[in-house]
Amino acid sequence: MSRVGKKPIPIPAKTKVTVSNGTVTVQGEKGKLERPLHPDVELKIEGDEITVVPVVERRKITAVQGLVRSLVANMVTGVSTGFKRVLEVNGIGYKAELNGQTLNLTLGFSHPVDFPLPQGITAEVDKKNNITLEGIDNELLGQTAASIRALRPPEPYKGKGIKYAEERIIRKAGKTGA
Questions:
Q1: What does the subunit comment say?
Q2: Phi and psi (nearest 5°) for 169?
């Protein structure tokens, strides 16, 4: 049995979970999320808890059970409290600005980079060039943050680039003079 998959998922107040036709729908204060359900796993909603139950006990299915439990738990957390990711832009002349749903980045290239934000993701840029991304879909939020970071990943010598706020860059020593 999957240890993660066996844990029940608490349903907060003002959050509604429904399962129909192999699709799980979670609706809460911040919005609504839908996801297809794996055919080898069932969701049982009892009171204010959701449990993920495998249809057949097999090793691969218990792995899927843990995955589905994590995905549904992220959906419940997303529609009730939401997710947040902070990126830092480091470097001389590097800056970030927000124009509507487009993030304008100056990253040391010969041209500015315009990054359109996907629907469901909101961004804020403060004076210290910190980009705060928020959304209810954890998967979409993480992919958006990774795509922005990939535009100019941090380099190990001076630390210039875009990095996650909690990320620690291991610095290398540069060349020593003659």
A1: Part of the 50S ribosomal subunit.
A2: -90, 125
Residues 6+ positions from 24 with CB-CB distance below 8 Å: 17, 18, 34, 35, 37, 43, 72, 75
Token pair, residue 173, equals 């020593």
Do 96 and 56 share a structural domain?
no
| Residue 66 maps to a domain | yes
Provide the residue-wise pLDDT of the chain in tens; the chain has 178 residues. 568 888 999 999 999 999 998 899 999 999 999 999 999 899 999 989 999 998 888 888 888 999 999 999 999 999 999 999 999 999 999 999 999 999 999 999 999 999 999 999 999 999 888 999 999 999 999 999 999 999 999 999 988 999 999 989 888 888 876 5
pTM of the model: 0.88
CATH number at residue 57: 3.90.930.12
Of the candidates 64, 80, 96, which is a domain's last residue? 80
How many structural domains compose the chain?
Answer: 2
The answer to whether residues 64 and 80 touch, using CB atoms and an 8 Å cutoff, is no
CA distances 152 to 5, 19, 52, 89, 146, Å, are 37, 41, 40, 9, 11
Are both 160 and 88 inside the same structural domain? yes
